[in-house]
Specification:
Blueprint: H1 11-34, H2 37-58, H3 71-89, H4 93-115
Protein name: DUF2568 domain-containing protein
Transmembrane segments: 12-35, 41-59, 71-88
Keywords: Membrane, Transmembrane, Transmembrane helix
Length: 116
């Protein structure tokens, strides 16, 4: 396969990547809040793997099954809200609220930027 021309990557895309990583970290920490020891880390890893699988299947730019906007933004926000609910249930209420607000705003802005 020949190399592809790199896409234009701006600061908003960098913040979006940070939000994606924050989602995975928050899910791992939320799982650790559900149980002590290795069971908590296992729950958190499972939650993170599920989120990464959903993201890779329907949101990744390289996915053959990538959803079109606005459906993709709606599914992203649903995933962010679900992550925040798990994090709040794991005892991370304030980080969960901050995450869902910031990540939703960033990905709405990315979708608007992609249309222009």
């Amino acid at each position: 396969m020949p190399p592809q021309k790199p896409q234009d990557v701006g600061p908003l895309d960098a913040v979006a990547l940070i939000c994606e990583v924050a989602m995975v970290v928050l899910l791992v920490l939320a799982g650790h809040g559900f149980a002590d020891g290795w069971r908590g880390w296992a729950i958190g890893a499972f939650l993170a793997f599920v989120a990464v699988g959903i993201w890779a299947q329907w949101m990744s730019p390289n996915s053959a099954r990538r959803l079109d906007n606005p459906t993709r933004v709606i599914v992203q926000i649903m995933l962010f809200v679900t992550t925040a609910l798990y994090a709040a249930a794991g005892g991370l209420v304030w980080p969960a609220l901050a995450f869902v607000v910031i990540a939703s705003a960033v990905f709405i802005a990315v979708a608007i930027d992609d249309e222009n």
